Amino acid sequence: MAETSFTFDSGQAQLFLNTVTHFLQAHPLESSIALVAASLGGYMLRRMVAPAYYPNIDGPSSKSVTFGHLFDIFSPESIPFHDELQDKYGSVCKVNGMFGMLNPVFTAKHMKSLVAVFNAIAQDMKRSMIQDIGSAPGKEIDMLKWCSATALELVGQAGLGHRFGVLEGVESPYSIAIKDFFPAITKVIPLQAFFPLFYNLRPTALQRKLAEWAPLSSIRRIKEIIDVQDKQAQMILEQKKNGLANGPVDIDDGKEPHDIMSILLKANMEADEKGRLPEDQLLGQMNTLIFAGHETTRLAVNFRFFIRYILTLLL
Description:
Pathway: Secondary metabolite biosynthesis. GO terms for molecular function: heme binding; iron ion binding; monooxygenase activity; oxidoreductase activity, acting on paired donors, with incorporation or reduction of molecular oxygen. Its cofactor is heme. Keywords: Heme, Iron, Metal-binding, Monooxygenase, Oxidoreductase. This protein is mostly helical. It has two domains: 62-98, no CATH class; 103-314, CATH 1.10.630.10. It is 64% helix and 0% strand. It contains 13 helices and no strands. Helix 6 packs antiparallel against helix 7, helix 8 (173-186) crosses helix 11 and helix 11 (217-245) crosses helix 13 (279-314). The longest helix has 36 residues, at 279-314. The radius of gyration is 25 Å and the shape is globular. The N and C termini lie far apart (99 Å).
C-alpha cells in the first residue's frame, strides 16, 4: 500500500496567516460576531455531550441548555424556586450553571485568631471618627463613609493581610474601585445570566474588546474596576509569595500571618501539582474575597446603626 506523505510548507502557512490577519483587520465587526457565534456554539455543544460531574446527585431539570438554572436563581421572583430546592431535595442538590469556588477557612479557631486584628481596626475607626468630629458639638458625620472604610480595612487585613490605610485618609485607585464596583454591578443585574456565556469566549482578549465596545457605560466602568483590582491583586500576591518564601512572618508585627489569603496560598504551595490552583484562580479568589467581605460587612454595620436609630426614636 502506498503511503501518503504530507509536507509542511512554511511559506504557505505564513501566507495563510497573513490572509487571516488582513481579513480580521479589514472586517473587525464581522470577525468578532463570527468568533462569538463559534464560541457559543462550542460551549453549548460541550454542555450537551460532556458527562455530568456529579451523576448521583439529584436536582431539578434544566429548562435551558444554554443558561441552565441561572434565570431561576437570579430572577426577582425566584423565592419559590429556592424553597423547592430545600423542600424537595434537602441540603444537597444539583443545579446547572456557571459557578465559582472559594475554599473556606472560616473555622472557629481561625476566626478567634483574627479578634486582635478586628479590635485594632475598631480602635482606629474610633480615633478617626473622634478626629472628624473635632471640637464641634453636635456635628453630624457620614457614617456610611466610615463604615465603608472600616469594612475595607477589615477584609483587607483579615482577608489579604494588606493594609489599605483608608482609615488614615489614604485614598487609592483600588479603594475607589472597590467602592464603585457594587453601584456599577447593580446597573447590569438584569444581564447577569448572560455573563457565563461571555466568560467562556476565547481568546480572552475578545472578552476585553467586547467590554470596551459595550454600549452601556456601566459595563465599561466594570472593566476599568476589574483592571484596577487585577493589578492590585497581582501586586499583593507577589508580596505574599515572597513573604512565604522567606518564612511565614508578617511584615507589620513579626508574627506568623493569620490572614485568609496567606493560609490559602501556603496550602496551595504545599499541595501536589494536580490539586494546586492556578494563579489566575488565586487572583480571582482574592478579588471575590475583597468584594464579598467589604459589601456584606459595610451593609451589616450600616443597618445596625440604622436599627439603633429607629429604636431610639420609638423608645
